[in-house]
Amino acid sequence: MSLLILAGSSRQASLNGKLQKRIAEVAERDGRACYVYPAAELDAPIYNGDYEDENGVPSNIQKLATAISEATKIVIVTPEYNSSVPPLLKNAIDWTTRLEQNPWVGKNVLLAGASPGRIGAMRAMTHLMVIMAAIKSYVAPMFLSCAQASDDTIASFDAEQIKGFLKQGD
Ligand code: FNR
User: Fold this and answer.
1) Which residues form the NADPH-dependent FMN reductase-like domain (predicted)?
2) 79 CA distance to ligand 1 middle (Å)
3) In terms of CATH, what superfamily is 2-38+69-86+102-167?
């Protein structure tokens, strides 16, 4: 099985980028092949039907869709902006659903998130769950939430919980 790990912040010191790598570390130790997808590769013009009519779907989004299609399982690590999903991630997801084939259909997806706050991106994950259900992926009934996130809490974050998700269907 191959695990695609997406993160929704391209900020250099991103806590979610660090959580993305921490999850990969645990999954690789569990013998899983991981694709830690660079968040900068999600960057696309804000979706606009006129842009799409003139230019089609951006090539980096087509590559993202291929990575989604090829993955056996997917983890999405989302930051929380004003209690919801940040635009980088939402926009990339919206674009992927403009392709002839929606790559998310039937995909097993686990949601994760880190924030320095006490709720640890839970509200963003709740919104993301609704979005993922709308695009027909199967969302695991568990969130990997890293609250009061910092370099230290992420380094010691109990990502072992991910092993149950990885085992399903083995
Ligand atoms: C935030 N942040 C934030 N945190 C949180 O726990 N709940 C929230 O609703 C928000 N809202 C919010 C809005 C905006 C516009 C910004 C820029 C930030 C703080 C956020 O969790 C923090 O900046 C994280 O460090 C962002 O994730 P990365 O970039 O570190 O991965």
Assistant:
1) 1-145
2) 6
3) Flavodoxin domain (3.40.50.360)
Q: Model confidence over 5-24: pLDDT tens digits?
A: 999 999 999 999 999 999 99
ipTM value greater than 0.90: yes
Q: Whose CA is nearest to atom 9 of ligand 1?
A: 82
Cα–Cα distance measured from residue 160 to residue 158, given in angstroms and rounded to the nearest whole number = 5
Give domain limits for the chain: 2-38+69-86+102-167
Ligand 1, atom 17, residue with closest C-alpha: 81
How far apart CA 104 and CA 136 sit, in angstroms, is 6
- State pLDDT tens for residues 84-134: 999 999 999 999 999 999 999 999 999 999 999 999 999 999 999 999 999
- Separation of CA 70 and ligand 1 centre (Å): 30
Q: Which two tokens stand for residue 27?
A: 């999954």
**Identity at 164, one-letter amino acid code:** G
Tokens of 167: 């085992």
User: Ligand 1 centre from 145 Cα, in Å?
Assistant: 14
